[in-house]
Design a protein that fits this description.
heterodimer; A: seven-stranded mixed beta sheet; 28 strands; 23% strand; globular; B: alpha/beta; two-stranded antiparallel ribbon; 5 helices; 25% strand
Chain lengths: 719, 230
């Protein structure tokens, strides 16, 4: 049977059972436009139908949480009337089909989630996954995604402050493009997405509605890829950062003038999703007239207008008295606006076109009645073999030689090839730019600082999803702690394969458990998240790739926070934290040097994590250099300090095993004097001096050579 | 004394330059691009960003914004006018400065601190600096590669005010980040009251941002406006 001969609901990605559920909700067969709406709203991408049952494991209960999961973004309280809004999203499938626009519209979408809350977006971070850069197609995707993020983010006028990247075969046919955004607002500007007030107007602001992106969420993001799926290119939306920039300024102006009752951005499923959500959230209904929507093409069907995922659009609910002023302000900011509907008693969302009723559904049913699956789970059969195959401990190796290979790895070498393409300085808030641990931003006019780190570790989450996922939470927390910030709130992005594969569901469930356990240990609220499933191409699932976006907060912010380039001649080098425990499973050493990903990663005790994180956050106010020890162990961490500060070191009495070990929750601290004050276990391991990275018996390499290798890790592969 | 900071749709550095100007006590007004009246302005700054989305070509649409005829009138009357990054591109497109900015040599956006050498102090941008002074200031552009048909006239007229260089002040190919002709980073007009540069002095305005080297350029402009007002 060809696609054209299949029933409409199958073509729209719905199962027979889901179709029956629509009939049950409506008490009749759905009209074409109604079926279109349910197909998108009940898609995996919009409804989280496979993951919802597991997401309840996360807690968001902390006194400083203002808005938890469920709204467009999480919001936390920073004191003195300041709030921060944060959110993370994925744009994986669109970016594989069309890397530039896929990544660009990912940025645009997440920014709308932030300014929908009343916040000005002030930063973006991008966790990325690609196949190895030796393959031309992977280079094409990498280059396209990075320039898409840069092209949109720079032009829309929001700095991109960092992110992280991994390269592995499993991502070659299913790259990951995650985007986290942060916004700032004053308390009185907070806006929510619940309509109220019968007779209030629904005004569509921004871009004209066209045929782009129809079925993007349901068909593209909620199914696996097969050969030839580049044909889905017409399903990818096209971004216009200029339109979004004007929309941001217009919306912020509307909030400031108190003209908006509620607002919702248009993302997946466009008008159908936004109208049903804003009405359903407020327990109201809405009448919508599609003839009043400003469109790009005039022969669009009602279903197309409803489903269109044209970018840069918002739906504002305003009182009739304010309607004229809102339309006037839209004109002032040079954006289009049209009043497309009216809030009703409810509960029905009624959609009209040419005077005909083309859809009438209970507004809340699109969200509330979505299917929820308890999919079967199964521990992967090959896991015992993987765990039994522990990597060898590198005893007596020449670390200098190994560094030549480690620093040449594109995930370990200099990533400024990426971050130099991003405007990471706009707004004059950037205190610690990309290339250190976490980013640090000031809030002008206050003593407050915000730190952000995005972290993932696909190799360890594959080897042991629970331990791996817990470790990324701890690592992200440590990354913000070394800037002086206290870990404050988490958003998570759960990137996994096909949920109909029980092993993938097990990975998802275990990862959620690991992240939740770690967050509980650190009293960290999870204020939002995103789930991206069906990251599978030609039957190959990606490595399970949960990613955390960690917000850290400090007040007062350290005025000279630690940086990797502040080392000076004569400084003493310390390691703080737990003793090494032969941590090579999933390590950079095993992956880069031995070409293997195997073994079972070590577990982290909550108490150890809490103590190391607190010690780091405290030391950040006094020491010039503080660096967490992660991929590549002490050797790579020390090399980064030497390269960035242009000063060498001599390390006393450490062998290759200790230098490459990746036992987490350790930090390197540098002090001008030969003493360090901390309550945590610490050890002096050497001195900054000269122009050699000198590991004693484990070999030495000049800064110049190490820098050349490190700096060329990405460029030499891209040319 | 008040400096008009012109805001086009798509401009995004207006608040940053206002912040830097406030550090030296200068008064500023944000002026929307459709406001065709700059009567009260003693100086004009076109800040960075993506005016009109940079669509068609950087500055190509912005030069037709209603405010630009007023900017041209003030420039002709000797009022100090400065274009930063996108503002520089707009001034070139509007014919208030010679030359044009084309795509960077390696066709990539560049956002990082670079070094500049002051070539001439006879301009509203460099008055308070010293010839030969080396400044570390961030660059943030895709079309920052300066080209001009009449490059000899620009050079012989001493109209180059800033050149890209290495950290020790030598003009080298590795110190030239975007392929600009003769490593030109900033220029002035013949009357020396209009200047433009690609790097962002406002981004090097406080120690906590990594450098204060941009402030000598900000101060130069404010001083020029004060002198012109007296």
């Amino acid at each position: 049977m060809t696609a054209k001969e299949q029933p409409a609901h199958i073509q729209l990605g719905m199962t027979d059972g889901e179709y029956q559920r629509v009939i049950d909700v409506l008490g009749r067969e759905p009209l074409a436009a109604e079926l279109a709406m349910y197909s998108v709203m009940w898609s995996e991408h919009c409804s989280y139908k496979s993951s919802r049952t597991h997401l309840g494991r996360f807690t968001s209960e902390q006194p400083w949480v203002v808005v938890g999961p469920g709204e467009n973004a999480g919001v936390v309280d920073l004191g003195d009337g300041w709030l921060a809004a944060l959110r993370i999203e994925s744009h994986n499938h669109p970016s594989f089909v069309e890397p530039y626009q896929g990544a660009a519209t990912g940025v645009g979408g997440i920014l709308r989630d932030i300014f929908t809350m009343g916040a000005r977006p002030v930063g973006v971070w991008d966790p990325l996954r690609f196949g190895p850069l030796d393959e031309p197609h992977n280079r094409y995707l990498f280059e396209g995604v990075v320039s898409g993020i840069a092209g949109y983010g720079n032009a829309v006028g929001v700095p991109t402050l960092g992110g992280e990247v991994e390269f592995a075969d499993r991502f070659a046919k299913n790259p990951l493009v995650n985007v986290m955004a942060l916004g700032l607002l004053k308390k009185e500007q907070l806006v929510l997405s619940a309509a109220s007030g019968v007779g209030n107007k629904a005004i569509l602001l921004g871009n004209a509605t066209g045929r782009d992106g129809i079925g993007g969420a349901s068909i593209l993001a909620s199914a696996s890829f097969e050969e030839g799926d580049e044909e889905k290119r017409p399903n990818v939306q096209v971004g216009d950062p200029f339109e979004e920039k004007k929309l941001i300024e217009a919306c912020l102006d509307l909030y400031e003038r108190g003209l908006v009752v509620a607002i919702q951005d248009l993302g997946a499923a466009g008008i159908s999703c936004a109208t049903s959500e804003v009405a359903g959230n407020g327990g109201m209904g809405m009448d919508v007239d599609l003839n009043r929507v400003h469109v790009r093409e005039h022969d669009m069907t009602p279903g197309e207008i409803l489903m269109s995922e044209s970018q840069e659009r918002m739906l504002a609910i305003v009182t009739p008295e304010n309607e004229a002023e809102v339309l006037q302000l839209a004109d002032r900011w040079e954006i289009e606006a049209s009043t497309i509907g009216e809030v009703t008693e409810g509960p029905q969302l009624r959609v009209f076109a040419d005077g005909e009723l083309v859809a009438e559904v209970p507004a809340a049913s699109l969200a509330d009645d979505a299917p929820k699956y308890q999919r079967p789970m199964e521990r992967p059969t090959d896991l015992d073999d993987l765990w039994a195959d522990m990597p060898p401990t590198p005893v007596g190796e020449n670390v200098a030689n190994l560094l030549r290979r480690l620093l040449d790895d594109p995930a370990l070498g200099d990533r400024s090839w990426i971050s130099d393409q991003y405007d990471h300085m706009l707004f004059l808030n950037t205190v610690i730019e990309p290339g250190h641990n976490g980013s640090l931003m000031r809030i002008k006019g206050t003593t407050k600082g915000l730190a952000v780190s995005t972290d993932g570790d696909s190799f360890r989450t594959w080897l042991d999803p629970r331990r791996g996922a817990a470790r990324i939470v701890f690592e992200a927390a440590l990354n913000v702690a070394v800037t002086g910030a206290r870990p404050y709130a988490v958003v998570d992005n759960l990137n996994f394969g096909n949920p109909e594969n029980p092993e993938v569901m097990w990975q998802l469930s275990e990862s959620i458990e690991g992240m939740a356990l770690a967050c509980d240990e650190l009293d960290l609220p999870v204020v939002g998240g995103n789930v991206s499933l069906y990251n599978q191409t030609d039957g190959v699932d990606i490595y399970p790739a949960p990613v955390v976006g960690m917000l850290g907060f400090c007040d007062p912010m350290p005025l000279t926070p630690p940086r990797l380039d502040r080392a000076e001649e004569g400084m003493t080098i310390w390691v703080i934290g737990p003793e090494v425990e032969n941590d090579f499973a999933g390590s950079a050493y095993d992956r880069v040097v031995n070409g293997a990903v195997r073994g079972r990663p070590t577990d982290v005790e909550g108490d150890v994590a809490r103590r190391s994180i607190a010690a780091a956050a405290s030391l950040a106010y006094t020491v010039p250099v503080l660096h967490d020890v992660s991929a590549g162990g002490l050797a790579v961490a020390l090399a980064e300090i030497a390269i960035k500060s242009d000063i060498g070191f001599i390390i006393d009495g450490l062998g290759s095993a200790e230098l490459l070990d990746e036992t987490p929750l350790r930090v390197i601290a540098l002090t001008p004097e030969d003493e360090l004050t901390t309550g945590e276990p610490h050890r002096r391991i050497g001195t900054m001096t000269g122009s050699l990275l000198d590991f004693g018996d484990a070999g030495s390499i000049s800064i110049a050579e190490a820098r050349a290798v490190w700096a060329n890790a990405i460029p030499r592969r891209m040319h | 004394m008040s400096i008009a900071v012109v805001v086009f749709p798509g401009t995004n550095c207006e608040h940053d330059i206002v912040h830097a100007l406030s550090l030296v006590g200068a008064d500023t007004d944000l002026v929307w691009h459709t406001d065709a009246n700059l009567a009260g302005a003693d100086g004009v700054i076109l800040p960075g960003g993506f005016a009109h989305g940079d669509y068609l070509r950087t500055g190509a649409i912005a030069r037709f914004s209603p405010v630009m005829s007023e900017v041209a009138r003030l420039a002709d009357s000797g009022v100090p006018v400065l274009g930063i990054c996108n503002g520089f591109q707009i001034l070139c497109e509007a014919g208030l400065l010679p030359g044009a900015l084309v795509a960077n040599a390696d066709l990539k956006f560049i956002c990082r601190p670079i070094h500049l050498r002051v070539e001439s102090t006879d301009s509203v941008l460099t008055r308070a600096a010293d010839v030969g002074q080396v400044l570390q200031v961030p660059l943030n552009s895709f079309e920052g590669n300066f080209v001009a048909d009449d490059i000899n006239r620009i050079e012989t007229g001493d109209d180059v005010v800033l050149r890209y260089c290495d950290s020790s002040g030598d003009v080298t190919s590795s110190g030239n980040p975007n392929g600009s002709t003769n490593a030109i980073a900033g220029i002035t007009n013949g009357a020396r009251n209009v200047a433009g540069l690609m790097p962002h002095p406002e981004r090097a305005s406080e120690a906590i941002l990594g450098s204060t080297d941009g402030m000598v350029l900000v101060e130069s402009f404010v001083e020029s406006v004060r002198m012109a007002t007296v």
